[in-house]
Design brief:
- The chain has a six-stranded parallel sheet with strand order 4-3-2-1-5-6, with helices on both faces.
- It is globular.
- Helix 2 packs across helix 3 and helix 2 packs across helix 7.
- The chain has one domain: Rossmann fold (3-Layer(aba) Sandwich).
- The chain has seven helices and six strands; from the N terminus they run E-H-H-E-H-E-E-H-E-H-E-H-H.
- About 40% of the residues lie in helices and about 20% in strands.
Length: about 190
Amino acid sequence: MIEIFLSASVPLPDRNRDFFDTADVFLIREAIRALIEVILPVGRITFGGHPAITPLISLYVEHCKLEKDRLTIFQSSFFQGQMPIENNDFCDVRVIPAKKNHLQLSLAAMRKAMITSQKFHAAVFIGGMEGVKVEEALFRKYNPDAIVLPVPATGAAARMLFNDGKYLPELDNEISFASMFRRNLLPKP
């Protein structure tokens, strides 16, 4: 079974406009759907709960009739009372204790727990804001031999990661997400 780390979010207009202005919400949704459809039949996806992403994943898993036990969601208890109701749809939700009731320290603790929770085959970065960039650096630190796959067509932080890194040029405007994930994430026969 392959283990995939997903870092994704839909940028907000009241935050850094560099993320929001380049984001393609439709492609963010489509990339997440394709990742679910390609990976869950053969592997597991671990991700940080997010008010826009968790409901999408729940919807896609239900629609495709895939196994919800192949998803692991990490949350910080800092957000207790604000977590998406869709968290209840999943078997493996891990709530990491908040740090001194401080948002950034709590997110850092959750991210470290999530990214060090297992040996990952790959990380996929879709859309996103500052947190996606932080998670990419942390992922590389703890998973130096794993595949790192930003999805640049989704814009936002994923586009920035692609532009700042050394990736295959053909990924630049790729929107056949299922094919991209099969080629880059699944074991070769």
